[in-house]
Amino acid sequence: MNLIVVKNVLGSLGTNCYTVVNTDTREAVIIDPAANAAFLIQMIKNQNYKPVAFLLTHAHYDHIAAVNGLKDAFPDVPVVIGENDDELLGNCAANLSAMFGDEPVFVKSDKTVKDGEVLDMLGTKMTIIEVPGHTKGGVCYYFEAEGLLFDGDTLFAGSIGRSDFPTGDGELLLSSISEKLLTLPEETKLYPGHNQTSTIGREKKTNMFFV
Questions:
Q1: How far apart are CA 185 and CA 198, in angstroms?
Q2: Average pLDDT over residues 16-24
């Protein structure tokens, strides 16, 4: 079994949308479908991917704007989000679409997940790590055996997410990262919601917020 990660930078804020694929089964999860649903649908069809979940790290509009289009195309594929961010999906002020978006964005989830929950996904195990701070219920998706961490806007290469939006908390963000992410194996590959990838080890050594 082999997982590959396909990154597409989508939307006006340059959000990283990740497609994680089991190359044996072609099963795939789409993490943070940020925008341009038509492009994502065409990619899925062209590559013969079999989507099994649309995973949201948090509820901000620049990570969810393609969800409704994907659901129209794949109505049986569940939309998944952390239990404490779920209510923000339908609130255009809290999800920032009223402030920054071209139009209000309203999304509904099919399943909520909680901290520590382990899901069977893509032929392996995926652990939910709740990391409040950027939003009150943001989560990371951690494929431990493969050493892959998808963390949304929590920890970036050389920086951290903002905490001045609705439900954000700066002190909580720092403690979430220190206690839940920087304790992971240093070789863990970090796939953030914006900009380039990194590793946990690199961030422990070089991130200005923690050195």
A1: 13
A2: 98
Q: Where are the alpha helices (DSSP H) in 65-199?
A: 67-73, 97-100, 170-176
Query: How is residue 45 written in tokens?
Result: 């069809």
Token pair of 115 as six digits: 């901290």
Query: Do 51 and 146 meet the contact criterion of CB atoms below 8 Å apart?
Result: no
Query: At 27, which helix (H) or strand (E)?
Result: strand 27-31
The answer to pTM > 0.85 is yes
Closest CA to 29 of 48, 46, 54, 5: 54
Residue type, 25: T
DSSP codes joined into one string, 164-193: -STT--HHHHHHHIIIIITTS-TTPEEEES
Task: Name the CA radius of gyration of the chain, rounded.
Answer: 16
Distance CA 192, CA 111 (A): 22
SS3 50: strand
**pLDDT at residue 61 greater than cutoff 90:** yes
| pLDDT tens string 112-148 | 999 999 999 999 999 999 999 999 999 999 999 999 9
pLDDT of residue 208: 96
Q: Taking a C-beta distance cutoff of 8 angstroms, is the pair 158, 139 a contact?
A: no
